[in-house]
Amino acid sequence: MSLSKVCLVIGAGDATGGAVARRFAREGYTVCATRRSLDKLQPLLEQIRIEGGLAHGFGSDARKEDEVIALVEHIETQIGPIEVLVFNIGANSPNSILTETARRYTKMWEMACLAGFLTGREVAKRMVARADATSDAPSRQGVAHKGSIIFTGATASLRGSAHFAGFSGGKMALRALAQSMARELGPLGVHVAHTIIDGAIDTEFIRTMFPERYALKAQDGILNPDHIADAYWMLHRQPRDAWTHELDLRPYMERF
CA nearest 96: which of 105, 85, 87, 88? Predict the structure, then answer.
């Protein structure tokens, strides 16, 4: 088993999730990254290893309880204790309420919220069970910080825009889950945080589909994934007497 602590990134895509994985790897964490397709993870895993980090990739569907349980069990027994969980599944698929289907709506909720519940529950069980005396995680005033669970939210976590009924429903539910978990797990040494990423992110999708928006990159008008990752690292390193539960990140020109 690796002696280093593990950062588990659920939904390690090409933007935020991948940047978070690289950031924690640079800090000495063994990264366990997941996507539904293991093949799509290979460039990220190779980059982390080239930079001197440790990384493991898993093809996993976070909506399936048995797969989540098996994933967490494997990591904890074969790789190392999970100190950080970052849940970063998007689930954004806009559609008119007039043509939305129950199947699509349910799938978005499963991806945005149910998957967060399953992974959050399984990792929290492990974190809470760790004895304070054996934890080498950062501590303040003798109380061990047993781990951090960070859920990635969006503008839809706060309001439902036209054509985003399914996405906003799932993201608002994820926010409520994060609030409940924070209130229960905080006193037990687990930092639960929810981020609101409000704005376009520097991705190939934005560059291709929204070139006018992407052009704002030169003016710092879209979010840099590496800077989002810096904020996630900051959240994990906070002392327990000054924990942030909800953090919103947006370009200076974004309306809110």
Answer: 105
Task: Please indicate, yes or no, whether the overall pTM of this predicted structure exceeds 0.90.
Answer: yes
Instruction: Give residue 133's pLDDT.
Output: 42
Reply yes or no on domain 6-249 having CATH 3.30.1490.20.
no
Residues contacting 162, CB < 8 A, separation 6+? none
Give how far Cα 24 sits from Cα of 5, 167, 232, 234, Å: 10, 28, 9, 11
- Domain chopping of the chain, boundaries: 6-249
CB hemisphere CA count around 97 (13 angstroms):
8
pLDDT at 145: 85
Tally the residues of the chain. Answer: 256
8 Å CB contact between 114 and 63: yes
Query: Would you call 186 exposed, middle or buried from its count of C-beta atoms within 10 A (0-12, 13-18, 19+)?
Result: middle
Closest CA to 244 of 201, 196, 200: 196
Report pLDDT digits (tens) over 169-215.
999 999 999 999 999 999 999 999 999 999 999 988 889 888 999 99
Strand 147-154 relative to strand 190-197: parallel, antiparallel, unpaired? Answer: parallel
